[in-house]
Every structure is written in structure tokens, then in C-alpha cells.
């Protein structure tokens, strides 16, 4: 098998995966997710039902991936911000908390409210099953957290991996809790007042996280 054929298969697989994600996102946005089937997603994406399950083990796993897709811009924003902040602190020598501070500040500055409102609009009507909705959105946040942790550790190999993993876990679970409460209180509306409420909640979360990793 040539390298060209392997690369071609990889490209085709990536294209099919994206087509499935796009189809699911469009269908979910246009109707109640409780009535969307894998067959509808497959038909819209131009693939077979089997292909959908080859890429995603279940319909909920597909919805998690859709949420990750929504969060992709925020993830890139966080990683870019972390890189900028860590470059600025690198000249002063290695501080074990500098990268964690950079991560927390990057998450605070990211446009998570817009992403969480988009996710709520996509999966919030999941047959009235609030527990399922929260599980799907939290799984997406956890996946994003793992990617961010890997990139932060690559940029700063001197970090203690366990401390980093714990910080990211606290951060992403905290974001999930805040998002649930904030969506209820804000009515999933984006206004200066609701954004201010989000920022205040994030500041509270970061204070609590920092009190854990700065007192060891």
C-alpha cells in the first residue's frame, strides 16, 4: 500500500466525519433532537448508517462531537491565549504556576457564553431529558479539556502532569456547572448583563481553583 493511498483514505475519512457532523448540526438546529434519527443524519451526509456508527459509536457520541465542533473556535482561542501568556512569562524563568494561571485566564477571556448558548439551542430540547443534555455537554467540555491539557503540557513540559490534569478537570467541570446555572438564570440570552454575570461566576470559580494549586 502506498503512502498516497493511505493519505487519500485519511482525507476521505476526515471528509466523511465532517459531513456527518455538519449534517447532524443542521438537523439538530432545525428540529427537536428527540425526533432526529441516525438514518436522517446518514441520508443528509450522503453516507450509510453503518458509516455513521464507524465514526461515532452512538447517537449521543455524535451529539458530543457536534458540541465539540461548536467549541472548536473557543478551544483555538484558549490555546492561542495560553501560548501568548506563557511566552511572556518564559523570560522570567520557570514558575510552576505560570502556565496554570495562563490557562485559567485564557478560559476566563474566551467567549464561552456564546458557545454555551449555541450548545443549549442545539441539544437543549433533547426530549426534556435534562440529565442527558448535561451529560452530553459535559462530555464535550471534558474532551476539550483533555486537548487543552495536552497542548499546555507540550508547551511546558516542566508542569506536574497530575496537577495540570486536576486543574483542567476542576476548570472544565466548573464551567459545566456554571453554564447550567447561567443558562437557567439568563434564559440563554446574550446581553451585557448576562455576560457580566458569566464573568463574575468565572472569577469566583478561578479563585477557588487557585486556592487549591497555590497553597501546596
**Count of DSSP H/I helices:** 9
CA(first)-CA(last) distance: 54 Å
Helix content: over 70%
Biggest sheet overview: none
**Number of separate strands:** 0
The helix/strand order is HHHHHHHHH
Q: How much beta, percentage-wise? A: under 5%
Low-confidence stretches: none
Shape: globular
Question: What does it look like?
Answer:
The chain has 216 residues and is an all-alpha fold. Helices cover 80% and strands 0% of the residues. It is built from 9 helices and no strands.
Provide key terms for this protein.
216 residues; mainly alpha; 9 helices; globular
Secondary-structure map with pairings?
Layout: H1 3-30, H2 38-45, H3 49-55, H4 59-90, H5 98-109, H6 112-123, H7 130-155, H8 161-186, H9 192-213
Helix pairs in contact: 1-2, 1-4, 4-5, 4-6, 4-7, 5-9, 7-8, 8-9
Brief overview:
The chain is mostly helical and 216 residues long. Helix content is 80%, strand content 0%.
